[in-house]
Amino acid sequence: MELKILHWFEELHNPVLDFLMYQITCLGNGGLIWLVIAAAMLFVLPKRYRKTGATVVAALLISLVICNGIMKNLYQRVRPFHADPTFENLYRVFDRIYDWSFPSGHTSASFAAAVAIRLWNKKEGIGALVLAALISFSRLYLTVHYPTDVLASVVFGSAYGGAAYLLMKKCWWKAHRIKHCGQNKEIALDGKDLKCYF
Question: What digits encode the pLDDT tens for the residues 172-181?
Answer without folding.
Answer: 777 666 665 6
